[in-house]
């Protein structure tokens, strides 16, 4: 999550080269599955049908695709979406 936040900060201020490097680090990092934290209003014994992930791979891939697309690397942008942003 820290790498993603650094990438977002660089992306926000316009340092897209550094942002792309950090987004790529997020995509290269494999973390364990951590369940999404429960809200205080949710019941303790509530069974969730789908396991939730706190993975930021899709968000990082989407933002990286935006950087590639704006730089004219359309094939690379399409490939990132194809690899990481499937339903």
UniProtKB/TrEMBL annotation:
InterPro entries of this UniProt entry?
Tfc4/TFIIIC-102/Sfc4, TPR-like_helical_dom_sf
One GO biological process this protein is involved in is:
transcription by RNA polymerase III
Gene Ontology CC terms, in alphabetical order: transcription factor TFIIIC complex
Q: What is this protein called?
A: Uncharacterized protein
Q: Write down the species.
A: Nymphaea colorata (pocket water lily)
